[in-house]
Specification:
Hypothetical Protein Ychn, Chain: A, five-stranded parallel β-sheet, about 20% strand, globular
Length: about 110
């Protein structure tokens, strides 16, 4: 299955659970793409000892079937630079993710 996950918030527990689900889906053999939009481009700022997002992100990015995309306009509006875990993307990329995914989940 091709799973699309859209993250639009910075709540650490919610984003940690979204990434845990993404990692579980990868272990099931699925292809998973995450698109960060709005506040979601700041998702890494919520990492803590209790909700270790960095650990989940690192595990996610190890897979060849995993990809993270981030809204370029949202990054720019926050004066935030693109990174490997928050790469610059476009609405065209979000549209393609929606079009090609079997399921879309939003967090």
């Amino acid at each position: 299955m091709k799973l699309g996950i859209i993250i639009s918030q910075i709540n650490p527990e919610t984003n940690w659970n979204a990434l845990r689900l993404a990692n579980f889906a990868l272990k099931q053999g699925d292809e998973v793409k995450i698109f960060l939009i709005g506040e979601g481009v700041e998702y890494e700022t919520g990492s803590s000892e209790k909700f270790n997002l960095q650990e989940q992100i690192a595990e996610f990015l190890k897979s060849e079937n995993a990809k993270i995309l981030a809204c370029g306009t949202c990054l720019k509006s926050r004066n935030q630079e693109a990174t490997d875990s928050c790469p610059l993307s476009t609405m065209k990329d979000l549209y393609a993710l929606v079009q090609e995914s079997d399921k879309i989940l939003t967090f």
